[in-house]
Amino acid sequence: MKKQQPKPQSTSAASTITAQQSFIDKYANVIAIAITAITAIMSLLLFNMRVDEGGDDSAYICRAFDLIESGRYPSYQGPLYPMFLAVVISIFGSSLFVLKLTSLLFITASQWIFYRSLRGRVNVRLLLMVMAIISINSWYLAYASLTYSEAMFIFVEFCITWLVLRYESCECDGWLSALKGALPIAALVVAAILIRTMALAIIVAIVVYMLTSRQWRKALAVTGLTIALSFAWLGVRTAIWGSKVDHGGSQLEQLTRKHPYEIEKGQEDFKGYLGRIVDNSKLYLSKRMMYVLGFKKESDRTLSTFTTLLFYALFIAGGFFGYKRNRAVFWLAILTAATLGLTFVMLQALWDQQRLIIPSIVTGFTVMLYGIYNLLKLVTRKFAPYITMLIGIIVCFTSIAQTGEKIDLMALRKNMQGDNIYGYTTDFYNYLALCKYCGTLPEDCFVACRKPEMARIYCGGRQFYGIYNFNTEDPDELIDRLRKNKVTHIITASLRRDPLVPRDKIINTVHRYCYFVMQKYPKAFVFQKMVGSENNEPASLFAIDYEHVDAVRQQLAAASSPNETNENESKADNTLN
User: Fold this and answer.
1) What CA–CA distance (Å, rounded) separates 161 from 118?
2) Among candidates 43, 41, 7, which has minimal Cα distance to 146?
3) Whole-angstrom Cα distance, residue 396 to residue 38?
4) Distance CA 483, CA 488 (A)
5) Going by C-beta distance under 8 Å and a sequence separation of 6 or more, which residues neighbour residue 326?
6) Would you call 318 exposed, middle or buried from its count of C-beta atoms within 10 A (0-12, 13-18, 19+)?
7) Which end of the chain has fewer beta carbons closer than 10 Å to its terminal beta carbon, N or C?
8) Lowest mean pLDDT segment, chosen from 60-69, 126-135, 237-246, 348-357
């Protein structure tokens, strides 16, 4: 492959402030290194030594434990990240600090890769402005200390961006050179898909991007190698774990329902998928994106159609101007549209999780700023750079204000000193303190609870039985399910439905489970221990008395026996008569 000569930047993209542009161009690398260092420093100041309340944070670690301990394939939510964590655990042990530190390294490295991939392709002031905003944004940097797959995915995504832009600017003399350049891209695309299934959209983005410049050979090379490497991975997986491994079908089945947990509502229809796009757009653009930019408090849950349409308009403008004037920005627009678009279509609106849009924050914001700049140039060519820079500065100030509120050095110090649950809200503090107490129970005890992965992390790796949902109110079926799984104890906790509203509505799945059982077996659950007070979001541990269950069943059987005998005698008398 021969590299094409870089195209000279158009005068329309030149800064009106020649001296400033010269200074920034001269020291751009130094500034980028400084911003990357700030990213690492701010990530450390925001470093969260606790596992996330959402549960997926600890679930990834538990899948890594299962892979190490029993060789179980981590099929749910993408296998590559738990496999990576398993390697880290095998080398460094199960230290939460070390596991979380890998996320910090991924986020920091991705900043530099983002810069290197776009340097010389995007206006350097715009590029550095986006990097600066991200380097102090608490919403984004939170994933630098969480064991979610987002940090690793962002790193891989930016590596793909770097390679795709280089690949497009290279001339291919034939199929051999096209395949040679496509191989690392295809390998990273497969890796991205193994981290997050939604990364399937990346291959679509690459094909569209290449075809818009009529590079069909490159599009076919990337597609063909991605398919070939995917089948190669399936062969390796089958050889190691066998053919019975879940291929992601259970997760796909869950996503295609109207409600992920309520099977009786049936499968989603075309109208429903369109509704998802509308609902998710409002949730993630007019609410979640506004949180990230610092224009809305987390307590503000209002949705805005106008804000949603405004974000869409700015993004579409950025993509349009990118198509006309800047191929790199156009790539970012296609990548963001493909990944977010698939997310909005496939996920039910009830998920409403910030993490779902985090990988698209940097790319999406770059496209929108580029759109704002070019729209302003249509009105005032002279002041467009100033106004764009002012918008960036405002977002910087709103971001740093939010970040300052979230820095908790006391909690970090306490966590590092050994109090690994300090800093949680009262509901989770009481729940996890009780989970830690369960570590003192005899080894043959098996405890059921609502968030078993978090419990396992804080109980030294001890297994817990998870009660996420149930589809019956039959007390016999419910208690027999616990007996069948050898559950001996159960935890009820006051975990908040809304983390910002204490002592209000709670996640009552386990409470309802126990309630239905107690309708028939009132003494099935024997109180053992409580952490917290009745009026302060307590968590309680109960032992399960299966002898009481059996005794009640015997009494009911005995009570029904005379009736059955009388009925049989009456039938016999009638027959004789």
Assistant:
1) 9
2) 43
3) 13
4) 8
5) 13, 121, 122, 370
6) buried
7) C
8) 237-246
At residue 454, what are phi and psi to the nearest 5 degrees? -60, -45
**Planar angle of CA 306, 311, 313, nearest 5 degrees:** 90
The H-assigned helical ranges of 122-199 are 124-135, 138-141, 150-168, 175-195
Indicate if the pLDDT at residue 151 is higher than 90.
yes
Query: Residue 113 — pLDDT band, cuts 50, 70, 90?
Result: very high
Do residues 165 and 121 make contact, with C-beta atoms less than 8 angstroms apart?
yes
Q: What is the pTM of this model?
A: 0.86
Q: How many CB atoms lie within 10 A of CB 237?
A: 17
Picking from 181, 172, 165, 169, the residue whose alpha carbon sits closest to that of residue 222 is: 181
**Residues of the chain with pLDDT > 90: what percent?**
64
Residue pair 379/18 in contact (Cβ under 8 Å)? The answer is: no
Contacts of 228 (CB under 8 A, 6+ apart): 186
Identify the residue whose tokens are 């100030």. Answer: 397
C-alpha distances in Å from residue 455, one per residue of 149, 448, 460: 20, 10, 9
Q: Which DSSP string do the residues of 495-506 spell out, in sequence order?
A: -BSSTTSTTS-B
For 248, residues 6+ apart whose C-beta sits below 8 A from its C-beta are: 75, 197
What average pLDDT does the structure give for the chain? Answer: 88
Return d(Cα 342, Cα 217) in angstroms, integer: 26
State how far the Cα of 389 lies from the Cα of 297, in Å rounded to an integer: 24
> For the segment 300-327, what is each residue's pLDDT rounded down to a tens digit?
889 999 999 999 999 999 999 999 999 9
CB 311 within 8 A of CB 368: yes
